[in-house]
Design brief:
The chain is an all-alpha fold. The protein has nine helices and two strands, in the order H-H-H-H-H-H-H-H-E-E-H. Helix 2 crosses helix 3, helix 3 crosses helix 7 and helix 4 packs across helix 7.
Length: 206
């Protein structure tokens, strides 16, 4: 992750953040989803929103949204503080009932919407004229997809296999691994071969 955050505010985006703490905005979302292990970076409220988001982003795959959210939470440990802060703000805005209303949706937190309504909310963010919402959508979406496709099963489903070949171990003898020193063999051959003898094959003796 880059050191700068992934949110682009702008004047209207800054105003949207300013009004996000009003009465309508603090309507509680669905917090029934619980992490499987202690969280490294996110709060439980942020984690619940991320799980709901991941469920829509990877809906057409075999991915487990809870696993995707945990992978993002783990990756955030290595992110700069401004990126962590921006991610928290983006998740808060996504589950904000007032923001939903102001952007053309229902006055309902994202985690309380039905799946189709969640998809519509994400489409509005992705197509929004506000740089804040577009950058938040793109940043959150990319994080979820990266967390999913970083797993071996997902990579294999795309036909990707690691290009790093595992080297073969050396032959084992009674005295330990057999390591052939070609330079030493050539030097020995040069000493033992009489003048005018044909050159040996690399790595062998005449």
């Amino acid at each position: 992750m880059k050191r700068r955050g992934f949110l682009k505010l702008g004047i209207v985006g800054g105003a949207l953040l300013a009004v996000a703490g009003t009465t309508l905005a603090v309507l509680p979302g669905d917090r029934s989803v619980r992490p499987r292990v202690p969280l490294a970076s996110l709060s439980e409220a942020q984690f619940a929103v991320l799980v709901a988001l991941a469920a829509r982003v990877v809906a057409r795959t075999t991915a487990d949204p809870l696993s995707v959210a945990h992978a993002v939470d783990t990756a955030l440990r290595f992110a700069p503080p401004e990126v962590q802060k921006d991610l928290g703000l983006a998740l808060g805005l996504l589950d904000n009932a007032l923001v939903s209303l102001l952007t053309g949706g229902r006055p309902t937190p994202f985690t309380m919407l039905k799946e189709q309504q969640q998809d519509e909310a994400l489409r509005r963010w992705g197509d929004s004229r506000l740089a804040l919402l577009r950058s938040a959508y793109q940043g959150l979406r990319k994080l979820c997809l990266a967390a999913h496709y970083a797993t071996p099963p997902a990579a294999a489903a795309l036909g990707y296999t690691p290009s790093i070949a595992k080297p073969e171990p050396p032959a084992i003898t009674a005295r330990g691994p057999l390591v052939v020193d070609l330079a030493a063999l050539r030097a020995r051959d040069a000493v033992e071969m009489p003048p005018g003898s044909p050159a040996p094959v690399d790595g062998g003796t005449p």
